[in-house]
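Dear Dr. V.,

Thank you for agreeing to look over these. As mentioned in my earlier message, I'm a first-year student in the group and I'm still getting used to reading structure tokens, so any feedback on how I've presented them would be very welcome. I ran two proteins. I've put each sequence directly above its structure. The first is here:
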Amino acid sequence: MKVYFSVLLLLLISSVVHAAEINFQNILQQERAWAGLESKSLKVGDIEWRYSEGGSRTKPTLLLLHGLSGTRDNWNRVARYLTPYYHVIIPDLPAHGETKTPDNFDLSIPNLTEKLRRFADAAQFDPNMHIAGHSMGGAIAMLYAAQYPIEVKSLLLVDAAGVYKSANTPYLKSPEQLRNIVVEKPGDFDRLMKIAMQAPPFIPQELKVAQEKLMITQSKNTHKMVSTLVEMSKLYTPESFAMATRMIDAPVMIVWGKDDQVINVEVAQELHGLFKKSDVPLILNGVGHMPILEAEQLVVQPYLKFLNTIK
């Protein structure tokens, strides 16, 4: 009887967890639809891309890139205000979200950038794009603009990763510290939110558990990504990073959370001084590392005005 009860209890727990996962995916799909996005897939080489697409292809194209351990859904709140006016593309970057890669995939920023270019070409997106990147996605956006200058109309950089002189957080001084914020066991998600956001939005417990479980399953890839970033930090200096940044001709908008604990706000002014065409950085008080989730309207309204100035 005890064995039967234990099996029944395990089946019940399993069904509840499965139902929570289904509900989580349903809510993500609803959020994408609310933002005017559809979920799509495309195989390019050895990468099975999953991405969100919305807005008319007859309108200018925006490519939005998420950060380390993030997903395309980090941009949904911002995308809601963009899809009525632009053709919006938001991929899950390789080894993130639902995009699948081989086990031995090269996760370096240069390779991610090159594979992103192949993805855009295979999907036949307008090659003359506006690109926005958050955190690690910002580093990819900058390299993309430096390598493919005639294909980038503008850049939006939100708390963008890079190699900076004014770095003073543990995660910039020693990228190895990023391992301490990888979600790999229950409880880590709450700890990450306290570091990444100054004022985390309310998340129902059921969805929080499902999100944490998803990130735990991806923790191996996240650790691989951190290892790649650690190696790159040894190869690049603030001077070599600045040299690449100065090559970018596209207009740039910089947004930063004043209370960012991951990439300190002083970096925004340093970046501003490197670009040929950069607006004065927009600094958001009371906001941490995730302005696109913490204060999306404070990001998107100035961004729309910025885009309207691009010819």
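The second protein is here, in the same arrangement:
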Amino acid sequence: MAAPLPVPDIGIVLEALSLVGTFVFAASGALAAARLRLTLITFAFFALVTGAGGGTVRDLLIGAPVFWVIDPVPAMVCMIAALLVWITPQKWWSARALDWLDAVGLAAFAVFGAAKALSFGIHPFVAAMMGVVTGCVGGIIRDLLAGEPSILLRPELYVTAATLAAGLFVLLIWAGMALPLAAAIASVAGFALRAAAIARGLALPPYRAGS
């Protein structure tokens, strides 16, 4: 894959994936605020920076207009997610709700981020990395704001799941698969790996210093 892959039209499927990722990541940010018993305004702030954080960094890196600045819909979706978490009883949200919402957002954003990078002529290898950035940065910002250990420091697979989703999407597009099908397969694969990691504690072996 020595040359950029042209993806001129992201299409409605990937746009829908982007909104799904924005909503669930924003909801996970609002849930983090709920655990800290913060105000509605702070709920909204947590939701916005979590839902839009990864995509903002991606757009700045690839030279694209920041998506939620030129289109108010993603920001509105973040506010809706914050309000939904605010008005629903806390008992409706399980102890691991944040992890599962994060898993959905991770897979959706990783694929969309890779696709958007490809559409701007970014090399496929770097485009896959942009998918990982899109999927992971929002969760990192959320954890930093909440004063919690970063999700990157947890033992179970996280960045690996984003890498699978973004990398598989790029490979499938390179192989000539239709964009909607490639997006669906890659998103499901990334979510399945992250879900298995949550449910079974799957993890890569840690670094071990030589004796």
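From my reading of the second output: Helices lie at 11-35, 40-62, 67-70, 73-87, 97-119, 124-146, 159-174, 179-200. The mean pLDDT is 88. Does that match how you would interpret it?

Kind regards,
E.
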